[in-house]
Amino acid sequence: MGKVKRVIKKGLGEMGFNAGGGAINWFPGHMAAATRAIRERLKLADLVLEVRDARIPLSSANQDLQPHLSSKRRILALNKRDLANPNIMHKWIHYFDSCKQDCIAINAHSKSSVKKLLDLVELKLREVISREPTLLVMVVGVPNVGKSALINSIHQIASSLFPMQGKMKRATVGPLPGVTQDIAGYKHLQIAHQPSIYVLDSPGVLVPNIPDIETGLKLALAGSVKDSVVGEERIAQYLLAVLNTRGTPLHWTHLNNRRLEGIKFDSEGKREYSLKDLRPKRRKPPNNSDVLYIEDIVTEVQCALYLTLSQFTGNVEDEGDLGGLIEQQFEALQKAFKIPHKASEARLMISKKFLTLFRAGKLGPFILDDVPDANCVS
């Protein structure tokens, strides 16, 4: 990812985090308070369930808590596995296994997936402290890694096992980082008996320091930092830099995907093109109106990025060339999203739509972090 780092330093360096870490002005006070509260409650926990985003297994770690977590029994739950590249996910599981760290990839919205996680929790606690009558599991994680969704799934499972818990208030779930702010209102959910095992929820917290710009951009791209803090356009530029340096759009033509059927990638001699030539055969909308299906929008976006990259004659390893390519792609995306040429704030609209597609997994599964070569990193 060195090429991405260079283009970031070249074009995206002026933003709200410092390359060398340090104070940042967007760390909410309730998160700082939550960090202090969690440190105290960690002393009571028999096991910590640390939730991370499977797309950024290292970048989504709460570095401020790692020194406190390293001495605890811990299971890493890499959530949103449905959005992560399965061809790389197993390498991360192997990596954490080599570091003697229990790790499991999950989908917090899948009861069967969460049940496997709870089975692992019960197994690890039974084999370590079978003599304790009551055990406490604490759930921690940075904002928007899906911790609240996980708690809600645990609630549903626990309610079926222990019906008296059925009327407990569900955890608040929202798309914005830090939506679970109530420190005092922790929820206890019983998930096992003999020994009794309880799961304790905690507020989402984010580290008060981000080690480098790229880590901050990964967190922003995954939604753990509010878009308004970094700027949607910068995040979209970063995403395009990642896609281009990896050559991802060039592989979209080989996908066994029905959305690409009937599309002709005729790029020879065509610097200007009409998206009408790229549009796949569409199903007739139910109301006969000219409404694009999400599949059509995704296809046009993929085609636009494929054409711009396949016709690119520069070097993606050169910061200037890559920056120029990204500018071309913004123009192509504007056509793909059918945003009026003279629309005010067109680039903001393009960026928001583009990021929405990525975050929903419509551009394919990704893992943005690189698997470390050897040394174990928390």
Describe the structure.
- By secondary structure, this protein is α/β, with parallel strands linked by helices.
- The chain has helices at residues 2-11, 29-42, 66-69, 86-98, 111-128, 147-161, 213-222, 227-230, 232-246, 248-251, 294-310, 319-336, 346-359, and strands spanning 47-53, 74-79, 102-105, 134-140, 188-192, 196-200.
- Strand 1 (47-53), helix 3 (66-69) and strand 2 form a beta-alpha-beta unit.
- The longest helix is centred in the first third of the chain and has 18 residues, at 111-128.
- The radius of gyration is 23 Å and the shape is elongated.
- The model is unreliable at 14-26, 178-185, 256-282 and 285-291 (pLDDT under 50).
In short:
Helix content is 41%, strand content 9%. It is an alpha/beta fold.
